[in-house]
Amino acid sequence: MANVFAESVTRLVTPAAKHVLLTWERLESGISFDLTSRKVRADPYEVYERLRSENPIHRMRLINAWALTGYDDALAILQDHRRFSSGENKLEYAPYRTMLDLDPPDHTRLRSLVSKAFTPRAVAALGPRIQEIVDELLDELAGRDSFDLIGDFAFPLPVIVIAEMLGIPAEDRDKFNVWSNDIALAVEPILSGEEIVRVERASDEIIEYFEGIIEQRRMDPRDDMLSALLAAEEEGDRLSHDELLGTLMLLLVAGNETTRSLIGNGMLALLKNPEQLQRLRDSPDLLDTSIDEMLRYDSPVQFIIRVVMEDVEFKGKQFRAGQKVIILVGAANRDPTVFADPGALDIGREEKSHISFGRGIHYCLGSPLALLEARVAFANLVERFSSIELVEEPEFRDQIVLRGVESLWIRVERQ
To answer: What is the 3-state secondary structure (H, E, C) of 278-315?
Structure first.
């Protein structure tokens, strides 16, 4: 989805230092933005609204950054890659760069090579197989009146899809789940020592695994994306070995984490707004706009981060070279100057210009695949189950950049 793979000053902060920095923020602007607060991680939208009303371009002291809440401000940053760079953002704990933390010309070259696997025709061809996977996962739930939509459906679906695209053996998918969860922590602004160990261990293990698979494909190419990436050429250029490893890691994490959360967050929003769920049942032609609205209402990606390349005056604020700009995607997607009644879920909403897939040169390459998986998933869930109810209030994962529930237990009745 959007470019979240950008270093955001991952570091440990002592309680005393945290108190001083947050007090400094409050004295400067009347409000502080505590990324480590469980309340913010569980539901950031109330804080976003306070930031918007009191300090829409907010100087953060807990990390050396500016936080932006406005939709137009977000577009201005995302569409100006020369002054607001992704290329200076390599994750501290990620061993290889991806196209998401590169600027032109490297970004242009790498994206053109990888995009061969994500053409509209190539993605559309996956539709029948995605339908088969959805059918298989839901068939396995036959006879169960309640189940965890995340663990039993939304989690395995994108993992199976991306693993099959890459040509990964079915018996190795469980490893991908663990690696994906741990590597995804690397995008968080602040990590504990234990989390840093998990990221580094998962990175080492998945690189070792991919090295073995790459060697196999070099000797015995197959009809899969990995073989295609190995063979990809654009004006005589190829992916380097490090670029190939970085791309494989990106496909694993971005293709898994965000699609899972799109399904989970979207279904939770529908369950909290049952009149909208019924509206979708009555008007299945609203499926595409429903998914757009789910992405706007509770985006799986909450931050997009850029680095200031030169001193810039932005809306009266002085951005200094080297500082980070954090685009609060969830806030921009609820900007009342763009979206009417932004805190309401409206599956027929006409304003579809959410920024959950980013904008500019880093617009999400895999967005058509994510939308296709979500479309098939929700169409079948609504068709199979005449009633879907929430069993218990879910807890969101203890993350702020990638937003999603740990589990989503639902009770169903079948058609």
So the answer is: HHHHHCHHHHHHHHHHHHHHCCCECEEEEEECCCEEEC
Q: How many CA atoms, within 13 angstroms, populate the side-chain half-sphere of residue 153? A: 28
User: Model pTM?
Assistant: 0.90
Q: In the predicted model, what is the mean pLDDT of residues 205-231?
A: 88
The C-alpha atoms of residue 233 and residue 114 are separated, in whole angstroms, by: 10
In one letter, which amino acid is 194?
E
Q: What is the pLDDT of residues 311-320, one digit of tens each?
A: 999 999 999 9
Residue 225 has pLDDT above 90, yes or no: no
Alpha-helical segments (H) within 30-170:
38-42, 45-54, 71-78, 106-114, 120-124, 127-139, 149, 156-166
Secondary structure element (H or E) that encloses residue 388, with its range: strand 385-390
Instruction: Provide the token pair at 107.
Output: 């970004």
Dihedral of the alpha carbons of 159, 230, 200, 155, in degrees to the nearest 10: 0
Q: Name residues whose C-beta falls within 8 Å of residue 232's C-beta, 6 or more positions apart in sequence.
A: 113, 114, 116, 238, 239
CA distance linking residue 409 with residue 415, whole number of Å: 19
Indicate the Cα dihedral angle 144, 149, 151, 155, nearest 10°: 130
pLDDT band at 347 (very low <50, low <70, confident <90, very high): very high
Q: Are 140 and 256 in contact (CB under 8 A)?
A: no
CA 87 to chain CA centroid, nearest Å: 19
Contact in structure between 299 and 74 (CB atoms under 8 Å): no
Determine the Cα–Cα distance for residues 324 and 63; give it in Å rounded to an integer: 9
Chain centroid, CA 137 distance in Å: 23
- The better pLDDT of the pair 170, 45 is held by 45
